[in-house]
Design goal:
Strand order of the largest sheet: 2-3-1-4
Distance between the termini: 80 Å
CATH architecture of one domain: 2-Layer Sandwich
Mean pLDDT: 81
CATH superfamily of one domain: Ribosomal protein S6/Translation elongation factor EF1B
CATH class of one domain: Alpha Beta
Helix content: 25-40%
Structural class: alpha+beta
Largest sheet: 4 strands, antiparallel
Order of helices and strands: HEHEEHEHH
Number of helices: 5
Length: 164
């Protein structure tokens, strides 16, 4: 049984790590944070397959983080991901390093497949509608087009009635 466990730990698997970086990080420093995640994977002997650069996104609900001993609320974060091949131990190291990094608000590491599994965004197809009928303007009576001026008192009274 211990032989099987050792084989499972050394077998290479495909993993994907998704992470949300604090918006307090400046855009020019994002690459340093991502490079730190890559360094953990490379140090453990993992190899990269694909990567999505972090992009600022509005969150569905606010996240709270402790910064300098204060609770800070964020409604946006930089979302990025990377897909890599490594051992179970290396994936655990990546998971642990993401949890302790103070600039990472939330992260997730899971097993996946090598193939591209992302849903492609499709442009909405416009439906063409052909009309055979021509629209005609309805004739107006001369009295309708020239509206009588409204007095200030009538206007104030109408506003009073609406607001009550």
């Amino acid at each position: 049984m211990t032989e099987t466990n050792t084989e499972n730990e050394t077998a290479l698997r495909i993993y994907e790590a998704g992470y949300q970086i604090s918006p307090a990080v400046k855009e020019e420093d994002l690459e340093k944070t991502v490079a730190g995640i890559r360094a953990v994977v490379e140090k453990a002997g993992g190899t990269f397959i694909a990567e999505g650069a972090p992009a600022l996104m509005k969150l569905s609900y606010p996240l709270f983080a402790l910064e300098a001993g204060k609770k800070v609320e964020y409604d946006r974060a930089y979302f990025g991901w990377l897909k890599f091949e490594s051992t179970l131990e290396a994936a655990d190291n990546v998971r642990d390093s993401l949890k302790v990094d103070p600039m990472i608000l939330r992260s997730l590491v899971f097993t996946t497949v090598r193939e591209e599994t992302r849903a492609r965004m499709k442009a909405p197809q416009l439906r063409e509608v052909k009309r055979t009928d021509t629209l005609k303007a309805s004739p107006r009576k001369p009295e309708e087009s020239a509206a009588a001026p409204v007095s200030e008192a009538d206007l104030e009274k109408a506003l009073q009635d609406i607001t009550e």
